[in-house]
Amino acid sequence: MAATGSRQTGRIYKIASAYKFWIELDGMFVAGFTEASGLEAETEIEEYREGGLNGFVHRLPKGTRYPNIVLKRGMTQSAILWSWYESTMNGAIQRKHGAIVLQSADGSEFGRWNFTDAYPVKWSGPQLNASTSDVAFETIEIAHNGLKGVFTR
């Protein structure tokens, strides 16, 4: 199978599809999720005007912020996610390290985003409506202390 992707300085880079991924918590496969969002990092800046230099403003980095990761999956009879969130509600925060792992088309690991010291801050149950045949989903939102991308070559 030929690799697809962009060519830069004589190399061809594979392109991954966004629909093949899994979630790990503390090194163990947790569940198949249908959606994962919040893979973001934003470096805040501080603007500094230097006296006598009116042509530009210095833009200095202050720090990096990471929004919460939001994971969505079809409801199952497993209470693992609810139990994890319930411990947070009861004041017994269980921090976990985790990863969102992206797969190549052949099922091998394409790359991953590792996150640290994560704990759930919100759980949402399904939207129930007897007039539709939609799948029941649960969503968990987790706070964390940073992302590190690791990509295979």
From TrEMBL:
Pfam families, sorted: Phage_T4_gp19
Top-level lineage group: Bacteria
Species: Paenibacillus radicis
MF terms (GO), sorted A to Z: structural molecule activity
Protein name: Phage tail protein
InterPro entries: CHP02241, Phage_T4_Gp19
Signal sequence interval, chain numbering: none
